[in-house]
């Protein structure tokens, strides 16, 4: 390798090594690496060869810094060179790269700027993958381009560039109107004829209506016999000349501003606000009431922190209310953030108890409530008073009659109704709650019953027989076994899903079986699911049934514990 390098320097093609005077260090490093690659320079000679071509203030810095005494590698030498002579820091480069946008430039111009900055970023951060640069490139395009390229997921920067070019070409072009002046005279392709002073232009003379033409049954123009549907031979020709207001060709900057205005939602003249509590669920400090709107029951929050009345989008679609489209308007959320409302329900009637109210609703995404009655509704029915003991709300209906509305979390007196009345209320949209009474199967410790003296005497006499088992039975001449088919595959099934209560009981019984040494931990490839069933016993014990599918020769395939 060393011999090859020396030969390439002495006898190879004449290559000129670039000089470095302190300007454009990144470009000098790239040119130097091209020279090293072409000449086959070894890594140990790169720094010594480069220092021979450092001149001017760069040479003064190199002698002053004492960098050569440390015997740096080529990579370390380049890092120190960039750190000293770069015109901008890495923070400036990162900020410039992240803020790069297409704006009014073309796709080609934006791509050139992006690739120039991308090369500098890659040199400082070689570990960044190309997919990250592709995402940055797409996000910097104009809105009408990037939102069409994102679903296509381009793999390389070149693919993203050509997708942007093709989409730009496929975009509909605006009509260009021909400019003309209202004072310009129309021109024809015929040559003008000189008019001598003696020749005067012929003046237009209206046809003379003679007395004969006015005779009864005659046409006034041609004099022929006139009947219904008569077509006059001298019927006048009417020519209509229409024109359009001259328009100037819109510039590219005006087109961009127009597109941006179409994409951004319009703000409301009077900004709407909504409280942060309206975006959450009810707490003890809030008050909600039940209202009926559009044939559906809704939970409405009384919120003085919202200056408008809103309805949840999902609830509005379930009602029979008419939803109209409107310009998109901003809704400021207390605590920070904006929401957007693009439709509304015109003034409609909703019922609270037996009282009817009328209100207009703005459509908005409300995660915690169906309806939010804001300060605009309370201002229409002022004065408004709140009471938290009992929890109720009092408003003035039509400015005259006070109406007391209980909170929806307040327990009210209930009356017993028959099945027909219940069915009638359900059909009318009344809310209903179903409660199912089930048997309490909570495991309770079995009650200790008094043992008769006769039974107690037998238990004491045969104490060894009635003791709790602490292990497997002794080995006998005939033990239980399950014969398997030869070369059968061991079953291995995942366990069944169990309710939380049965899972605890199963773990408890398995632990007891392990403690009594009736079962033991096994690493066998056989794995069968276990189920827990309740035996028909008064004390409510559970039985653990382990069912396997090991392909036995007999039909009995269950093991009961």
Write up what this structure looks like.
This protein folds into 4 domains: 2-85, no CATH class; 90-170; 272-415, Acid Proteases (Cathepsin D, subunit A, domain 1, Beta Barrel); 453-472 and 484-560, HIV Type 1 Reverse Transcriptase, subunit A, domain 1 (HIV Type 1 Reverse Transcriptase, Chain A, domain 1). Strands 2-3-8-4-7-6 form a 6-stranded mixed β-barrel. It has a 3-stranded antiparallel β-sheet with strand order 9-10-11, with no helix packed on it. It is built from 16 helices and 14 strands. A hairpin with a 4-residue loop joins β5 and β6 (338-352). By secondary structure, it is an alpha+beta fold.
Structural topology:
Elements: H1 2-10, H2 25-39, H3 43-51, H4 56-65, H5 74-85, H6 90-98, H7 107-124, H8 130-139, H9 143-149, H10 157-170, H11 252-263, E1 272-274, E2 288-293, E3 296-302, E4 310-312, H12 313-318, E5 324-333, E6 338-352, E7 355-364, E8 371-373, H13 375-380, E9 385-388, E10 391-397, E11 401-406, H14 419-427, H15 453-461, H16 500-515, E12 530-534, E13 542-547, E14 558-560
Parallel strand pairs: 1-5, 3-8, 4-7
Antiparallel strand pairs: 2-3, 2-6, 4-8, 5-6, 6-7, 9-10, 10-11, 12-13, 13-14
Search tags:
30% helix; alpha+beta; Cathepsin D, subunit A, domain 1; flat; 561 residues; 16 helices
The spatial strand order of the largest sheet comes to 2-3-8-4-7-6
Give the fraction of residues assigned to helices: 25-40%
- How far from one another are the termini? 80 Å
Q: Give the number of domains.
A: 4
Low-pLDDT runs of 5+ residues are: 179-192, 194-209, 260-269, 549-561
Can you count the helices? 16
**Beta-strand share of residues:** 15-25%
Largest sheet: 6 strands, mixed, barrel
Order of helical and strand elements:
HHHHHHHHHHHEEEEHEEEEHEEEHHHEEE
Shape: flat
**CATH class value of the largest domain:** Mainly Beta
